[in-house]
Structures are given as C-alpha cells and as structure tokens.
Amino acid sequence: MRATWDIFCSVVDNYGDIGVTWRLARQLVAEHGLAVRLWVDDPAAFVHLCPQADSRLLRQEQQGVEVCAWAADWHAVEPADVVIEAFACELPAVYIAAMAGREQKVLWLNLEYLSAEDWVEGCHGLPSMQSNGLSKFFFFPGFTSGSGGLLRERGLLTQRRAFQADEGAREDFLRRLGVEPVAGALLISLFAYENAALGRWLQVLAAGPQRVQLLVPEGRILSSLQDWLGGPALQVGDTRQRGQLHIQVLPFIPQDQYDRLLWSCDFNAVRGEDSFIRAQWAGRPLLWHIYEQADHAHLEKLDAFLAFYKEGLSADAQVALVALWHAWNSNGPIGECWTQLLKSWPEQTTHAEDWCLERASQADLAEALVQFYLNWL
Could you tell me the pTM of the whole model? Predict the structure, then answer.
C-alpha cells in the first residue's frame, strides 16, 4: 500500500505557508506516488491558490491531493504514516494522542522555515523526544547539501528555459494576463509587503533613461504603491504611467501562472518564502523582501543568505547587491542603490542563472523528505 502523509498548515501570513505546503503536497503525489492529505485552517486562502477549489467543503480532492478543512472542532481520524507539522503549527491534541496510540509507528516531522544561517545544518534532522514517547524530527529546508533542500519539481528548469527561449510564448502568456508588453522596456514584477522605500525606487525608475514596465500582482504592496501614485484607489487591471515607468495591477494568480510571470520578467521583487524560492528558479536577478521579525532577527537571515548568494560576483557587484537588499528591507536609499546595481547588470543576470543551476544540483525538498522517511524505516 502507498505510504500516507498528512501535512498540517496554519495560514498565518497571507499565502506563504499555504503556498509552500500546497506545492509540496502536489509534488509528493505527482512524483512520489504518495497518498497525501493537506489540512488547512483557512480554506479561503487555499482557494486563492487553487481557484477550482470550494472553500465550503470539509474534504475535496484537488490535483490528487485530499484537501481537508482543519476546523477547531476536530473529529478523530487515523493518523498517517508521516505527519508534517509545517512551520511550527500545533497539531490537534486528539490527533497527537492517536499518533502515540497507533500500532504502526509514525514519523513526525516539524518542517521549519527556510534559512541560510550557519546553525541550520547542525539542527537539520535532529529528534526531539516528546512526553508521550513520540519523537519529533526537525526538518530544515536550505541551500546546502547538509540541509533539506528547496522545493523544485522535476523538469522545472527545463520548462523554464524553453519558455524563456520562446519570445512568442512569453508575449502570449502576458497578453492572457491582460498585459501588452511595452517595447524595449525592462520588465519587473513586484510582490512584496508594505514598504516605505517603494516610492524612492519608483521615482528613480520613472526618471531613468530606460522604459520600465512594472507588473504588480494584487497584494499588500498595493497600499504603498497607492501612496506614491495618489489618485483613485487602485483596482486589478488598472494601468498608470509616470515618466518612463508603466505600471499595471494584476490579479492574484495561481502558482503555475505566477512561475511564468517570474520567468517572463527581467527582474523580480518577491517576498516571504514561496515566491523567494520561485524567483531563484527563474534564473533572473531578484530582490527579497523578508518577513520582519522582532529584534531585527530577519536581517540576520537576510545577511546569511546574501553571504551565500553574492559568492562569485565581483567586489563592486557584491557591494551593489547587498546595498540594494538592505535599502529595501531597512527603508534606505533604494533609488541610489538601484542605480549602482544597474552598473553591474550583465554580471548580475549571469550570476542569477549560475546560482539557480548550482542549487538545482542538490536534492529537492520533496525528494529529501521521502528519503528521510525511507532511512527512518
């Protein structure tokens, strides 16, 4: 019989947590033939990622995954062979008790947030004994071979390179989103949290020597964009122009379409975890808006990633990259930093593809999870 997997997801930050777990669940089914239940405590958020889903249903099958509503009034179910507690969410007490009482042992995994910090490799795969006799193992996604890897479907890079090599496919995709490509423009996607630095960046783009087309999927950054533009409230489909800058608001789109948006653009500003990883697979220069944490702990995570990512760039290109990311995440002079980054643009572009290929040489997250289970057996 197929191994059964339960993935529990508590939606705490818009679509980041559900974005990661939904991708993982689909991949475990499609590529590893597993029986997967995805438990979601906010079905409405899931529908944004999977529009054909029905948020009113307690159980439904979508793309081979059994998607279940994780309600407060939990009804007892048979635990799976593998239980993934995504991003430190707390499993129902009744479910944990059933895990402890199950005749066949259960592998309990705490899937952690992504980090490039040094301590990750030392903690990855470690068990934590629980009072009920169960062991919970910490599983850390990461950028090195000593971590759990990154979400990446088989053939993803082959699909991406074929798409990017076909200008007609790119233009057709954009037009299906209602976007008419601006001739000769640098194409940028913007998906971020609210950011006070945005206006300074947009001002430089608007006054620059090159046309820029900015595509903004519906999300939290729209409030900051509205503050800079002024005028009527922005709606999906709206376009605005300021100097050389052409802006268009896009609808919130399913994950596969968002991947192609990233592939279509010359530069991608992304946020959180899911879009951050997908932008790296796009092989294009990127800008990460990391989720803010207390005591500026997020900046340590930002610098840990930059220490890896900047390797291979020239000294000037490294300085420009780090300055831009710090300005974006600390309300700094991002306009000036953007101007400096453009001076090393060809190098930044080549480096983004090289980084992508190097990360793709490692096992992906789904593969690493399955192998961990097999080793545990």
Answer: 0.95
